[in-house]
## 1
Amino acid sequence: MSNKKEKRNLETEIIHAGYHPDPVAHSVSPPIYQTSTFAFESAEHGAALFAGKEKGFIYTRLGNPTIQALEEALATLERGAAALATATGMAAVSTVYMTFLEKNAHMISTAALYGPSRTIIETEFTRYGVSSDFIDTSNLEEIKKRIKKNTRLLFIESPANPTMTMTDIQACAEIAKQHGLILVVDNTFASPVLQNPLELGADVVIHSVTKFINGHSDVVGGVIISKTQDLHLRLQKVLRMMGGTMDPHQAWLVLRGLRTLYLRVEKAQDNALKLAHWLASHPKVAWVNYPGLESHPQYELMKKQMKGPGSMISFGLKGGYEAGMKLINSVKLCTLAVSLGGIETLIQHPASMTHSSVPKKEKEEAGITDDLIRLSVGCEAYEDLKADLEQALEKC
């Protein structure tokens, strides 16, 4: 095999990135190295591994061939120096916070952030003097106004969960650089297929691989991809010590799901674009937030920094909260469940579900209204999805 790195199309990279033929059985699928520890060839070999003088594996919390294959693949897809696979998406978030937020530090973040990502800062990290401002990060002037002497981290979601608000990543990177901040982007909603924040100037990208990257609603996990090796080593030290690392079987399942990421994202996005246009014209629908609609306030920004609008839709009904509850209780094909990014279409009510831990006033300030319904569009036939939503809307 040539050591020369070939430039390949994304569809090809998704299928082949991180794959190295098994030297023993030459299996097409990477093996699951289901082991907690690895044998040393000698005392000297073990000492050399611990000293970092030789490459190899010691203990699965510190590294494992199956996990490494996934990390290599995701670092390649996000154009990063290296990646760290984590046990859950929140393990990735918590590792980032623990690495970059020292005692009495301050962070700025997107108001409409994934609920637990916000709650852990406001309820746990405050015990160590960490303060935070959760704001509309689409307003760049507001970001600049909130920067303090002790601000260390600018942590954004774009598109945001669940409002679909877009933030200009390149502009945020310029602000972060000017003020010596670390810019972290949660890229879960877009996936590496549609957006690459590191190429736009971000320092670190995280994903809940539970979502689009795995894509089959059968495993949880996270990943942290760093722009530089120095950032990677800082994060790696914290992750290994805190113990939030992924296990080999998890990694193998995510690798299996990853290989169809491009196909799934393309199909789901096609469905979502059609559904968004249809919902926007429906007499019982009050509003639709979807970056692929020209009515979306950041439609031009989406075209600038994304390769497509994705498959997440937020919308509200003219009948408000009660109509929304009636809708999600009436669907037959769409599944009423939290999470997103699977091959199946999921529908949920963020105010009472994923963001229930966020105080009501703060939810409203973030645009998470009681009538907001979040739809994660899957890969079913568009006609079947439309028919299901149509019969449910008739009952509202």
## 2
Amino acid sequence: MSESRNPFAATDVAPYTLPADVLDQIESPALVVFLDRVRDNVRSMIGYCGTPDRWRPHLKTTKIPEVWRELLHAGVRQFKCATLREATVLVDLADSEGIAADLLIAYPHRGPALRRLAELAGRTTNTTLSLLVEDPDLMPEMPAGVGVFVDVNPGMNRTGIPMQDGDAIGAVVRAAGERFRGLHFYDGHLHDEDLAARRAAIHRGYDRVLELAAELQADGIAVGEVITAGTPAFHHALQYAPFAASDTFVHRVSPGTVVFHDARSQMDNPDVELQPAAVVLSRIISHPASDIVTCDAGSKSVAAEAGNPCAFVLGSDALCGMTPSEEHLPLRVVRGDRPSRGTPLLLVPRHVCPTVNLAEVAVLREDDGSMRTVSVAARAH
């Protein structure tokens, strides 16, 4: 699919309709979350996984306790996150709900962050905490009671130990001792549009994960869990038969974007049926040229790091996003008349995760149409 073609042009907008009296009360730009779509996506994901226990969603996307509660109530108990703010909000939520959760902080924290993690581990009553580690020398600084997942680099070259370096991986495992819980293998760099080619590349990486697990088991070290697959790879990971058949470790996928869905995920995963659940309400504020309109959702409200268009108009291919500035998003009119100034638009971000992080609050719409405003409590650092 072309990067500029709107993957949601044909989406039925009726389920996303906001009454005029509600629109009159919402200042734009605003993050709007449709909880019925969230629940649909969560049910779909559990259906793909076969059981909630096979899914360890990354919380960096959603950042809203009211949305995380939907995951907990659907039976999801394993999570991962990146920041200590996300970890703290999840721990507080699980404790308040009386639910035993399992949270991997999938980021190589150092220094003062480890002291904050120690404080969090010391006060939680329900949540099991683990940390992603690639350095055996970190172990003396590790907070008591915090488990270890070894960060294996599948070729993304962002963090982790190169997957061929079995000796270095083994060194971290041995340094972790009884804290060792499993292997983390995030293959988020594989986006080949040819799904068969993507699947083959992903599965070659998993062949190596099986080799690593077997090498550790031959040394008498049990691998309790293998975590793979963000949004681009999760469907292929679930189709990798040796993971499902393993009787020595539990395999879990870890996509988080899927709860809200976005344009990049739709283009990456045309074989996965999900719906946008988080959009940015914007309004047209200017007619700067005969074939251009400008709306009020610039790069301070819609993440722009993933390329142009940074967002797509839900249910329409008449407008195509151009390069945003901080407060403005110009859209080229490619079909029909220019919409009038003040016209509301619902924008589906290309990349929803950092878009959510830009919002201090979100408007939640319930199944019955009622609306409420909540804090995006786990945003920022």
## 3
Amino acid sequence: MVHNIDLDMDSIPDKVEDVPEEITTMLATIDTALMQLCSSLSVKFTDYASKRTAKEEEWVQAERQYSGSLDIEDDKKLRALGGSRAHSSPPIVNITRPKTNIAIARMQDIQFPLGGNYNFILEPTEVPELRKALKDDTPVEEEQEPEEMSMAGTPMAPMDPTAEEGPPPEPTQAPTIADIARSIMSEAKEAATAMQTQIRDRLTEASYGKKARNSMDDMCRLGTAVIKGPVHKQKIDRKYDRVPTSDGDSIEALTLTERTIPSVQWVDPRLVYPDPDARPGTDMEDIFEVHLMTARTVSKLASNPAFMRERVRKVLGTEPDISSLGSAIQSLSLVGSAGTRIQNRYAVKEYHGSIDKQVLLDVGLISEEQKEDSLFLPQGEVWFCNNHVIRISLSPLEADDSVPYFFCTWEDDKSSIFGHGIPYLMRHAQRVVNSSWLMLLDNAGLTAGPQIVLNREMIRPASPEEGWRIEPMKVWFMTEYGANVQEAMQFVNVPTQQESIANITELAMTFADIESAIPAIQSGEMPSGNNTLGGVAMVLTASHIVQQRVSERWDDNITVPLIRRFYDWEMQYSEDENIRRGDLNVKVGGATERIDKQVKAQDIERILGLAGSNPDFQKHIDADAAFRELVATTRAGDIILSLEEVARREQEAAAQQQEAPPDAETIKAQAAMLSAQVKQQALEINQQMAQAELEMNSQISQAKLENERIRMQATQQEGFMKVQLAQMDREQKLLELAAKGEMTQSELTQKLQIAVMTEETKRILKEADISQFREELSIKREMGTGI
């Protein structure tokens, strides 16, 4: 329960003598107790603020570095040197901002890949005994009590004395231990699912996704993210109802309903002052949070029943004062360099932690017995401003009364509960890049033109008004007749150092990749070194592992404890019995659990693919279980029916088939459909046979054509050989005649030429006949007339 006190001063009589003495004494005691509490908390706040000065300086430097300003020390040195840059901001290369933005985007993508307002799953705790019981088919003993049977999912029907007597019911099969275990697990699963839906609705109503992303921005820039919750929030529901009037009619009237809901808040880490002795992973004893409020915002606290109305009025009677915050907060970018943004703000401080028992007894929040109990260490909440306590209450959660603040760091600082961000890790690399870039610009300016050396004794300007400035087309007079002008004016070029300075800049940017563990490739830049496919994959894998490590830290430090506190809140305050009947021990999984489920889904798909390729493997796989596990790894896991529901539906389908035989019309329709299918199949078979016959005839025709072509080629070769033999025989006879002297040499030559021409003519005519025959065969084959 939430315990508050509210002193309604309007109910106290105007005259002091009309107030009973016991009420006056009680009010004086309460006022004194609250003054002492406010004084002690103010001293503690001042002590906490003084012990985090070093961390505040780190935040200031991180904000300057992220925004693109010089390091504070470098800026002081540059201004001390004077010159043109003493009163201006020099140009620098900001390598911190893009890497920080990459880290922010990567964290948001891991935790909220699809946006939304939740990043968790809720499951019942694994019970090994129930897992073992699922394999036990031993029937439950008959002596089991009805209540136990009901828990096993098989409730016994009550006896109805008015029921007519009839044949005894058929004996039902006794449930097994596996049935009871399955029923218990199903009930726990349903309760966890209902609780998960309820908490997700709460987080959506509180815009948790937006606030978590703001905290991730703080974690990457400042090194620490702070989430607060659940906190009580008063919500007013507005709706119009029909209200009857005096004349019998009805009108629409606005109805306001106030209810308390749990909410979650994003907290700026620069406005929280935790226990300075707390370290990462340890419990905080107490913590302060500062709310910078205007007078209007403070006045709205009076309408909240948790705050003391008259004491809020006293706070508004004082002037806004931020001196208690110290000078460190003035230099934060949150409030501006001059601190003008909070000059008209009230510094309302919220405290969570242990409260003195005597104070709680005096204000009536605990009893005398609780005060004397040394094991009772009350934790509470106190709001105060300008030496006035405006709210005091005990912890609203009975199951968990720790401070409702959750911290997550990008890089742990072992000396503080606050961590280090990307700018802090890159501070040295950014400083080297700034220095080398300024040196590069200075050297470029010096080497843009020569240094000019003038001898004033040998020359003077033609116009005294122009002075000694070097200008185009300027006229100079020699003061010595016959002197060498080269001796009077000389130009000296400053050597360039661009390449060596640029190497320093590149080396510093390489170190920035190493120190931040965020390579340039994540911003779309291809690495200059190992830019092969394997090298790029290795770089991305290494960077993702580092960021997944931070994501796991977010789950461990924020998601899991926050959802557990929401679970405790619902178990204590919710009126929905469906979510309160579950196990108090739940398994909360964050984004890392979601990644594990994705890996599990990939493994299942790979195993199913392997089993599908080998029948011997399929007998080792439970296809139904594999499908259920695969769907459970997705966000659509809620559509899976329980095993009992699947069995019930199968039984109903089987019973319907047995009880309702098909009628004559249905059988006739099925027969007609079957006949049509048979005819269709016969038609398809005939078409396939005709197509096969056509293909066979085509192949036979092609084979005949090929045989004819080979025969014609052989005939042609044989003819050629006969022609050549005849020609050789004729030539031999002509030579014999010439040898006998019967023919002259010219006659012999003429006869040989005639013989050659005759044979060539025969060969050409033979080839023409063969070509014509081939064309006829081709035409016949295309036209389908056979050969």
## 4
Amino acid sequence: MPSAKHVGIVAVSAEGAALCYRTLCTEGAELLGPHAHPEVTLHTFPLAAYMEHANAGHWEKAGELLLASAAKLAGAGAQLLVCPDNTLHQALDLVRARSPLPWLHIAEEVARAARERGFKKVGVLGTRLLMEGPVYAGPFAAAEIEKVIPNDEDRAKIDQIIFDELVYGRFESVSRRFFGRVIRRLQKAGCDAVALSCTEIPLLVGAADSPLPVLDSTRTLARAALREAVA
């Protein structure tokens, strides 16, 4: 079997981290052979610990949790890190330079995928903190992509669905239809694609559910990790 780097997953929420892990394992076979994938180690502190800091705007403290996870993964032999949580990249941006290992950045990878597919105006769906925050602004600007977010009412409802349903593994048809309506509104606003920028949203909304092409942030990050692991 070809050699590959050991991938460390700094998890935050369970469902998104599980999707990232499953993607690494199932799609690894395409690069490494039947039933093969990179060595993977995952560590997480409770989501509650992260959200306490994020909701208070204490991003540096949230970043210290990410670094603590990174240290544990480095000790386990990981050589490359990913965090399948879009929102907490606001904290990662503050501490990435102090990491013991290199990280892939989820927004940078989504921007790369959007640029490769020729998208110019992309709707971003995620937690309220993510949609209204800076995580995607820099990577999209560097890729010459316009970032668009839903209206305030839609942002509040999306946030509620994420934290009351998706992170608990609940995927309701009524919520799927709501996301479809939000994406249609983004389409009417001129968007040519939509980024599913909460790592759980791809478990609820797929390409068949969206009137716009979708950019699946979770699988995009996992595929980038595979790319780097076998490089």
